[in-house]
Amino acid sequence: MSFGKIQAPLVSIIVINHNYGRFLDECLMSIAHQTYPYIECIVFDNASSDNSRSVLAAAERKYAEEDGRSLFVIFSETNLDQTPGAVEAFKYANGSYIIFFDADDYMLPTCVEAHIRTMLSLRIPVGATCVDYFMSRDDELVTSTSTAGFSQAATDPGGGEPLIRSTIALPQTSKTGAELNLQPSELHAIARTRRDWPWSGTCGLCFRRETIEILFRRTPQIKQQLDAYLIGGVNCLTGSVLIDRPLVVYRHHGANAFAQHPYLANFRMYDPKAQRVAASITADEIVKTFVAVSDELAKRLEWAGLFVEAIETLSAVWSPAPRRSATVAYMREFLKTNEAALVAAFGPREYANWVARYSSHRIAWSVVADFSRSLIHAATALIPGEGHSVEKQTDRPVGTA
Fold first, then answer.
1. What is the dihedral of CA 207, 29, 121, 90, to 10 degrees?
2. How far apart are CA 149 and CA 231, in angstroms?
3. Which residue did the predictor score with more confidence, 134 or 212?
4. Which residues contact 365 (CB under 8 A, 6 or more apart)?
5. How far apart, in whole angstroms, are the C-alpha atoms of residue 281 and residue 300?
6. Any domain includes 248
7. Is residue 109 part of a domain?
8. Is 245 part of any domain?
9. Which range in 12-21, 156-165, 273-282, 315-324 is most confidently predicted, on average pLDDT?
10. Which of 182-191, 206-215, 231-240, 370-379 has the lowest mean pLDDT?
11. Most distant CA pair in the chain: distance in Å?
């Protein structure tokens, strides 16, 4: 297949580093040695006090020797933490696709290629794709899957698959295509209304640029939880796709913000109380961003109801109030609190329709083409007695950074 002068898209990989000099070289070299050729790597160093500067200087020399690779380093005078650092680093990114990567993790050679081949193969272009993890304890591999949610989503026969084309032939280079052999059966659609956490985490995710632009219109007031903020905001607008292949190594070394140990079936690898608090805060930040960009979303979304459907999904999945009655109460309060902004963005008639809908306890969304679970099935997940207890809804991992 010939694309003339058209080349495959540029991918910006943003590495957030704070005192991970001992892992940084391996991380950056795994990016430099990707089979996918069109990559820029941006490192945002959060005021490291270890040997990170010398490691980065050596990495810049190594990158200069790699064909088509570029490394751009930003040194912050203060530690902005993960999420504000990502917002700042994104200002320097040029890619059509964005990957945020932690400095203590490692990419397998075909990771980026898998993301891009998947993105270009989908007939319904989603805002994010997600690969599975290997998980290691320091330098020793322990497991080849990241979470129970990922495994369940990938093996659920009722989960559906996205409409895809046959494997896309990217513009040929000396590196692409020889090792990947990605199969359509490895791709699994995640519905916009999904009511659990099926993804891996930050380093497994790849985003369309325009989705990050929307979510970074304002800087979220959270230090960590970057993965939850981004995939939570993107998925409820566009859906996402899992790639059922471990292509990243998530390194557990005792200083991780999320994982207390590598994933083990039927064992929590996170602090559930801390995650419940983080879930509520993160959901609130996504909602605040959606309100802040409501004018833009009103112009760009295909139908206005998707906006409040996204807000409802966030309230039901990410907040500690999963029952239907609590969700309706939340939506009423949301509409009342943000009346001026929503009327200005979507118009008084649409706003009045939303108020009436939640006042009557009916959620009658239009029937639309969704490529995974039906809206009716998703709505029943909110009703008590349908296998979704309060404990299951609120005791959910939110992020894996």
1. 20
2. 14
3. 212
4. 305, 309, 375
5. 26
6. no
7. no
8. no
9. 12-21
10. 370-379
11. 65
Closest CA relative to residue 67, chosen from 32, 106, 116 = 32
Q: Provide the whole-model pTM.
A: 0.84
Alpha carbon 356 to chain centroid, angstroms: 33
The 10s digit of each residue's pLDDT in 57-110 is 999 988 887 766 789 999 999 999 999 999 999 999 999 999 999 999 999 999
Please say whether the beta carbons of 319 and 327 come within 8 A. Answer: no
**Paired sense of beta strands 205-208 and 97-102, if any:** antiparallel
For residue 201, the Cα-to-chain-centroid distance in whole angstroms is 7
Distance CA 285, CA 216 (A): 11
Tell me how far CA of residue 219 lies from CA of 80, 115, 172, 292, 321, in angstroms: 12, 26, 39, 11, 25
The residue segments making up the domain with residue 295 are 281-394
Q: Is 91 helix (H, G, I), strand (E, B) or coil?
A: coil
| Residue recorded with tokens 């320097």 | 92
DSSP 242-254: EEEEEEEEEEE-S
Total number of residues shown for the chain:
401
Domains contained in the chain, number = 1
80: helix, strand or coil:
coil
Distance, CA of 291 to CA of 234 (rounded, Å): 15
Asked whether residue 175 is domain-assigned, the answer is: no
- Cα separation, 191 vs 166, whole angstroms: 22
